[in-house]
Design a protein that fits this description.
This protein has about 350 residues and is mainly β. The protein has two domains: about 35 residues, no CATH class; about 270 residues, Pectate Lyase C-like (3 Solenoid), CATH 2.160.20. The chain contains one helix and 23 strands. It has a 23-stranded mixed β-sheet that branches. Strand 4 and strand 5 form a beta hairpin. It starts with about 45 loop residues before the first helix and ends in a 10-residue tail after the last strand.
Length: about 350
């Protein structure tokens, strides 16, 4: 109910003047109030930011590829020869991370030991440095020469290098060899008269092999090992000075052995060949004062034996002259794989075949 603004008399709702004092009644129109509407802020979809980030990363990869990827070819050759007079023993320690290494019993052009290294590959367009580093050091103590050599190959951003190193050794020296490569191949070619002390050839991934010819003498133990790859050992007319152990081993790969011995040795050989997964193959031809006893074991696989003038079942088998004046005591093992034996003792005419 409204009231007169002057005398306070109650008025009708629709009164225009106060009926008591005649004062006009004031009328007011009140504006309506509408509260503001809170609208959510518009945001860009998150996938747009993902596309932007991917574009930035791809641009960075393309720029890096242009700068560092191997587009520029290179080739090189380097010779390191060591000439130390009055030495008769060599201790060689050689390491490479990626190389094909070939060791030869052959007189170098100059000196007692020579490294002939060559290679080719490609580098990034802004790379002015060859990605192969070769270091060779040596020291002499009395009549013993010790040589330490290392080849390091860089593969940063796809730099590619194919490296081959031939090592020539004076066969008149007493040779102790320790040669290792991480990836690649290690091969020993011993076809001139020479005497080996300790012989250790190793590759983490790759082939390890030794081809041993006549007039080679082993005066210590032999080890050929690879983690993933093949081990090959070929012994034809070599000799041993004393009783020694030959270990041929791979974790994943094949072990291949070939032995030709027709002359009495100056000792006995314990030959152990093993692989975790892969075959073990033995081809043996012996005569005169050389005997052999062969034991074989496989967990998953077969033992296949073709033997002439050997007695026994699949394992062990023995040459008919065993024990002889000199002997090969052979142990062949594989966890998963077959063992294949072809063995002949020539001095008798009888033969037997077992499968």
């Amino acid at each position: 109910m409204p009231y007169c603004r002057k005398c306070g008399t109650p008025l009708e709702d629709n009164a225009k003047i106060c009926y008591k004092c005649g004062t006009p009644v004031d009328t007011f129109t009140y504006a309506s109030y509408t509260p503001p509407i809170n609208r959510p802020t518009k945001k860009e979809p998150i996938w747009i930011y993902g596309i932007i980030l991917i574009a930035i990363l791809l641009s960075a990869v393309v720029i890096a590829a242009i700068i560092f990827m191997p587009f520029k070819p290179f080739s090189f050759g380097q010779t390191n020869e060591i000439d130390q007079p009055n030495v008769n023993t060599l201790n060689l320690n050689f390491q490479a991370n990626n190389a094909q290494v070939i060791i030869m019993t052959q007189n170098p052009t100059n000196g007692s030991v020579a490294f002939y290294t060559s290679g080719s590959g490609s580098v990034g367009i802004l790379n002015s440095k060859m990605p192969v580093d070769i270091t060779v050091t040596n020291q002499t103590s009395g009549s013993t020469l010790t040589v330490n050599a290392k080849i390091s190959t860089s593969s940063f951003f796809g730099n590619v290098a194919n490296v081959k190193c031939e090592i020539w050794l004076d066969p008149s020296m007493f040779l102790n060899l320790n040669v290792t490569t991480e990836t690649g191949q290690v091969t020993l070619i011993a076809n001139q008269s020479a005497t080996f002390g300790s012989l250790n050839l190793k590759s983490t991934t790759g082939l390890v092999q030794a081809n041993i010819g006549k007039d080679i003498v082993f005066a210590d133990n032999v080890s050929l090992k690879t983690s993933t790859g093949e081990v090959m050992f070929n012994m034809n007319g070599a000799n041993v000075n004393g009783n020694h152990t030959f270990n041929l081993q791979t974790n994943t790969g094949k072990v291949d052995i070939k032995i030709e011995e027709n002359q009495t040795l100056l000792g006995n050989v314990q030959l152990n060949a093993s692989t975790g997964t892969g075959e073990v193959d033995l081809s043996m031809n012996i005569d005169n004062g050389v005997g052999a006893r062969i034991e074989s074991k496989t967990n998953i696989g077969s033992i296949n034996t073709n033997a002439n003038n050997f007695s026994g079942t699949k394992s062990p088998i023995e040459s008919n002259n065993y024990p002889a004046q000199s002997n090969f005591l052979i142990s062949l093992k594989t966890n998963i794989g077959s063992i294949n034996i072809n063995a002949t003792y020539q001095s008798e005419s009888t033969s037997s075949t077992r499968n």
